[in-house]
Amino acid sequence: MDELSIKIKIADREYPMKVKPEDEERVRRAGKNINERIRSYRERFGIDDKQDLLAMVAFDCLVDKMETEENKGDLDESVLDKINQLNHLVNQAL
């Protein structure tokens, strides 16, 4: 499968990359999201140092990822409980 050569601009700097066609939209959205978070931190806290802004965005993204993983674990446990309840009901009906 061929890869696409694209450029993503993050914090006024272009990054060339090769991506699979099915990943292009996700990669572009990620770049846009990073730039929006940078702009938000710059406006909210008056920070202009790009390294500080990128560090804050990286931290923010990792916290979001950790929260998502924790919620996924809770959801998996809830689904497993429901499946066990359904199995119990099926077994009682048999």
Walk me through the topology.
Layout: E1 4-10, E2 13-19, H1 24-45, H2 50-93
Helix pairs in contact: 1-2
Q: Give the strand tally.
A: 2
Largest sheet: 2 strands, antiparallel
Radius of gyration, CA atoms, in whole angstroms: 21 Å
What integer is the average pLDDT?
A: 92
Structure description:
By secondary structure, this protein is an alpha+beta fold. The chain has one domain. The protein is built from 2 helices and 2 strands, in the order E-E-H-H. It has a two-stranded antiparallel ribbon with strand order 1-2. Helix 1 packs across helix 2.
Write out key terms for the chains shown:
alpha+beta; two-stranded antiparallel ribbon; 2 helices; 2 strands
Tell me briefly what this model is.
By secondary structure, this protein is α+β, with helices and mostly antiparallel strands. Helices cover 70% and strands 15% of the residues.
